[in-house]
Design a protein that fits this description.
globular; TIM Barrel
Length: 295
């Protein structure tokens, strides 16, 4: 089974002013990321505006990413759709294009009908059919569903479900999962809860803030592993404001604007999302400066 220990940025999908996928910009960003000690890259996830990508665009993103991401770094592809068959098909395509693993979000359009038994059937069918290991993706902020600890533990016994991205920010929940399934690989999706998650057994994180501060997040993980919790905590505190700005604050538009400020190529967001206005960019710039991310 793949070892997912480490930090992964859920990379943005840069778009041109006309809304087209900007292949050159994605390559530019990936070339910068692979020079760091990141464990790998997630493509077409929530920060990648995966919900707004056509299947052809998801294929193009995966093809582009695999040409840049070296073999010693993992490429995780977000392949979850609203149907089991659609998820199986996109996961098969991801495997054929060289993805090392697939991140599968909970189907959520008919959220009232997505009880825990239904979720177990869905993930089991996807894992059974997949040629690559599956990571569960729990993100109540977007799906308005929250997988229970019992559901996760039930799925953790599947040979092809290697772990999960737990994005609720609930460190107690992660601890509860690992208490009963210590070998299950849990990565947090919350940059603000990263230190807490690491200290109770999470093996890493797939976090939006890693798009802006990959070295800082890797350093936080390394310091925690060495037992230097105070130094790790100092980084965690400094990342709170920028992490909030690009998640519950300005969202993906904020992440892309911040990347532009930091020398990456964030590009535009896709409608109906809108790019940040000048006033919001000024506030974001001040947040980055306060965190010592922008000089």
């Amino acid at each position: 089974m793949i070892d997912f220990k480490g930090v992964f940025p859920p990379v943005v999908t840069p778009f041109t002013v006309n809304g087209a996928f900007d292949t050159k910009a994605l390559k530019f960003n990936l070339e910068k990321y692979v020079e760091t000690d990141l464990a790998g890259i997630l493509v077409s996830g929530s920060f990648g505006e995966g919900a707004y990508l056509t299947q052809a665009e998801k294929v193009a993103v995966m093809k582009t990413a695999r040409t840049v991401i070296p073999e010693d770094k993992l490429m995780i592809a977000s392949t979850g759709t609203e149907t089991t068959a659609g998820t199986i098909e996109l996961t098969r395509i991801a495997a054929d294009l060289g993805a090392d693993s697939a991140l599968v979000i909970t189907p959520h359009f008919y959220d009232g009908l997505m009880d825990q038994a239904t979720l177990i059937r869905h993930f089991t069918a996807v894992a059974d059919a997949s040629a690559i290991p599956i990571l569960l993706y729990n993100v109540p902020l977007y799906t308005h569903l929250n997988m229970t600890v019992e559901t996760i533990l039930s799925l953790s016994s599947h040979d092809n479900i290697a772990g999960m991205k737990e994005s609720s920010g609930d460190v107690v929940k992660i601890a509860s999962i690992l208490k009963s399934a210590p070998a299950f690989q849990v990565l947090t999706g919350s940059g603000s809860a990263f230190l807490g998650a690491l200290t109770i057994g999470a093996i890493g994180g797939i976090m939006g803030i890693a798009n802006l501060a990959p070295n800082e997040m890797v350093q936080m993980m390394n310091l925690t592993a060495r037992g230097d919790i105070e130094a790790a905590a100092a980084i965690q505190r400094s990342m709170l404001a920028p992490n909030k700005a690009i998640t519950t604050g300005y969202g993906v538009a904020g992440a892309k604007a911040a990347m532009d400020m930091l020398g990456y190529r964030g590009g535009h967001v896709r409608a109906p999302l809108v790019d940040l206005d000048s006033g919001s960019k000024d506030k974001l710039r001040a947040i980055l400066q306060e965190a010592d991310l922008l000089i």
